[in-house]
Design a protein that fits this description.
It contains 12 helices and 18 strands. It is of the alpha+beta class. The N and C termini lie close together (7 Å). The chain has 3 domains: 123 residues, 2-Layer Sandwich (Nucleotidyltransferase, domain 5), CATH 3.30.420; 96 residues, Nucleotidyltransferase, domain 5; 71 residues, Actin, Chain A, domain 4 (Alpha-Beta Complex), CATH 3.90.640. The chain has a 5-stranded mixed β-sheet with strand order 3-2-1-9-10, sandwiched between helices. β12 and β13 form a beta hairpin. It is flat.
């Protein structure tokens, strides 16, 4: 990247932010300040004008409760933009919030955004364009597994191999690193959202009960598991009976929810197994010592480390504060933009 004296001077004083633009949540990491925003990636819009009315937590509160003229949506699906204008509004809102909280003298920041490794060039361009349209002075992209590994403090620049599995809302990213490069990777569009849909379908089919996305997510967080729990749990679930049309409450167990999400969990586990199967033997030997690191909100599913350890016969551990790994990794890039340029995924501008 060519040296630009003006950009260098502005960079000394600018608001530099790393963004995890997630399907489920958006996190903003400001250089020198840490994570200043962690809000749901929801936007409430006026159906007729398509104008954004509420963004983030306020919009998520409206899910399933809006009048006919208002629609609460997530403008990202499977980790990439599905609604460009609404994503731009959301980014502009979060960048503005970060600027207000940090009182930076320069309102136009440099931005590093994480996106799935499996994103196409068109999808990358959409993220870059949305960031620039939202007010960024410069925009840079980084692949999520790389950002997550940096945020989890994995020694990816070492000759010895390391491995991360980043499970978000829309995508699961699997990557094996050595010498600052990805040796083997998998990017699949099955993650937390798919599990939520599995739970909705299971309860509808077994109990004729219709529940919403918010209830499904609560069930997953409270009693969802990938492996038998030491003490199985139960939870009261409320919804609408599809036969009578009336409200109904049922008691459901963690055993049932484990069955409900078993297909999605199996796909994730099989993808990790396939990545390990393609990994060179010397790096496999390294991984046997260092273990496999889990990151992302989906890594907090109960029993997931135990399930992977049982299936893969290797140590599995969860990163510290796994949900913020991508945002922290994106922020680390800005500490030395020139030195970390090797990690960027294209469309960077200096």
């Amino acid at each position: 990247m060519a040296f630009n004296p003006l950009n260098w001077l502005l960079g000394l004083f600018s608001l530099d932010i790393g963004i995890d633009l997630g399907t489920a949540n958006t996190l903003v990491n400001v250089r020198g300040k840490g994570i200043v925003i962690n809000e749901p990636s929801w936007v409430a819009i006026d159906k007729r004008t398509r104008n954004s009315l509420k963004i983030g937590a306020a919009a998520k509160e409206m899910v399933g409760r809006t009048p006919a003229n208002i629609l609460a949506i997530r403008p990202l699906r499977d980790g990439v933009i599905s609604e460009f204008d609404i994503t731009r509004d959301m980014l502009e809102y979060f960048i503005g919030r970060a600027h207000e909280q940090t009182l930076s003298p320069l309102p136009r920041p440099r931005v590093v955004i994480g996106l799935p490794r499996g994103a196409t060039e068109v999808e990358k361009r959409a993220v870059y364009d949305a960031a620039m349209a939202a007010g960024a002075r410069q925009a840079f992209l980084i692949e999520e597994p790389t950002a997550a590994a940096l945020g989890a403090n994995l020694p990816i620049s070492d000759v010895r191999g390391s491995m991360i599995v980043d499970i978000g809302g829309g995508t699961t990213e699997v990557a094996v690193f050595s010498m600052d490069s990805i040796v083997v990777s998998r990017s699949l569009r099955i993650a937390g959202d798919e599990m939520d849909q599995d739970i909705i379908a299971y309860i509808r089919n077994k109990y004729n009960l219709l529940i919403g996305e918010r209830m499904s997510e609560r069930i997953k967080i409270e009693i969802g598991s990938a492996y038998p729990l030491p003490k199985e749990k139960t939870m009261t679930v409320r919804g609408r009976n599809l036969v009578s049309g009336l409200p109904e409450a049922i008691e459901i167990s963690s055993i049932e929810i484990r069955e409900a999400i078993s297909r999605s969990v199996k796909v994730i586990v099989d993808s990790v197994r396939e990545a390990i199967d393609e990994t060179p033997p010397e790096i496999i030997a390294d991984l046997m010592e260092t273990g496999l690191c889990l990151a992302g909100g989906g890594s907090q599913l109960q029993g997931l480390p135990e399930r992977l350890m049982n299936e893969l016969r290797m140590r599995v551990w969860v990163a510290e504060d796994p949900m913020t790994c991508v945002a922290r990794g994106a922020g680390l890039i800005l500490e030395d933009l020139d030195g970390n340029a090797k990690y960027l995924a294209g469309f960077e501008r200096r």
